[in-house]
Amino acid sequence: MDPIGDDLLRIIRPEIGYREGPGRHSKFGEWYAANVVQDPQYETAPWCAMFIAWAAERAGVQQYVGQFAWTPSQARWFETNGAWSRTPEPGALVFFDWSGGKDIKGIDHVGVVESVEGGTIHTIEGNVDRVWLKRKTRDQSKVVGYGLPRKVKENLAGKNDTAPQQVGRIEVRPALAPASTALTDTSGTLPVSMETALVAGLLTFVLGTSFVLSRLRPRVSAGRHRRRNGRQEPRRRAERRTGGAPPAGASLSLAGAPEQDRAGSPETLRVRRPGWAHEPYRADHPRPVSGLAPEISAPETPARGGGAPGRVTSRAGERALTG
Fold first, then answer.
1. What's the pLDDT band for 261 if we cut at 50, 70, 90?
2. What is the pLDDT of residues 108-146, one digit of tens each?
């Protein structure tokens, strides 16, 4: 076995059976947040890669394994150092894509190969089945590739064993377990920074306040004087042109119900019946009545006060003076 892989497995095996604490806290995330990136967000982040970084530091082989929390970056680091392989071997880091892809960008999870039997690999992995550090048996259908710490050491030795490449701030993103939609076997995405969270919170507050105020704002009714069919405005224009009188050629509806305009016909207006049409007959508006005695004309007499001559009529004993 590769001596570097052997040292790594020697630290990892005693941790089998570890389970993360409440709120997704893990001792590996706490260590990574305090010693690698100085960011408390990693204390509750998915910890499959941070567990390997912790074990590599304990074994003193971190310069050949790397200290990462984002699995695609760790795989790319192996590739850059000429230590990327498609063939498994004990002590190698194995990278998975649960969708079955073979691109480094799609990697979801990482573990350490403990042994190989034909097409089956036996691994030790952290953050599996949601919370556990345990042994797993895998086929290679979901494997993207393998990182070989021994090859990193060989290539660095060829370069006078220079200092390991500096690892930047690597974030975490969740992944999906094989043949499952539940979040497990995770490595991670970029957690939101504090500044971004504050801006997002403020924006949410402003939008929520605007929505509440819009619901409380009184609504202005359109009024009953407006028609939905758009007939009111032409009528007003016609009244302004004629001074309130109906336009020439317009038909009037006195029945009280609106008439339906027809294409090419004059505009139809609705006019109320005058008030006098509903009043009873009044005696001061005489008119002849059939069946009564004929009117008897009297000689005209001068009106009092020098007014115009008047006329006295008699109808069945009744007298009416006009003048």
1. very low
2. 999 999 999 999 999 999 999 989 999 999 999 999 999
Dihedral angle sign, alpha carbons of residues 192, 194, 195, 201:
positive
- The two three-digit tokens of residue 257, written as one number: 């119900």
- List the alpha helices (DSSP H) in the chain: 3-12, 27-35, 48-59, 62-65, 71-80, 149-158, 194-216, 232-242
CA distance 52 to 187: 11
Q: Which of 249, 257, 252, 244 is nearest to 271 (CA)?
A: 252
Sheet holding 311-315, edge to edge: 296-297, 311-315, 318-322
Residue found under tokens 């409380």: 216
Closest CA to 6 of 164, 138, 112: 112
| Long-range contacts of the stretch 269-272 (C-beta < 8 A, 24+) | 269/235, 269/238, 271/246
Q: For 137-179, how does the pLDDT look when each residue is reduced to its tens digit (9 = 90+)?
A: 999 999 999 999 999 999 998 876 444 444 444 544 444 333 3
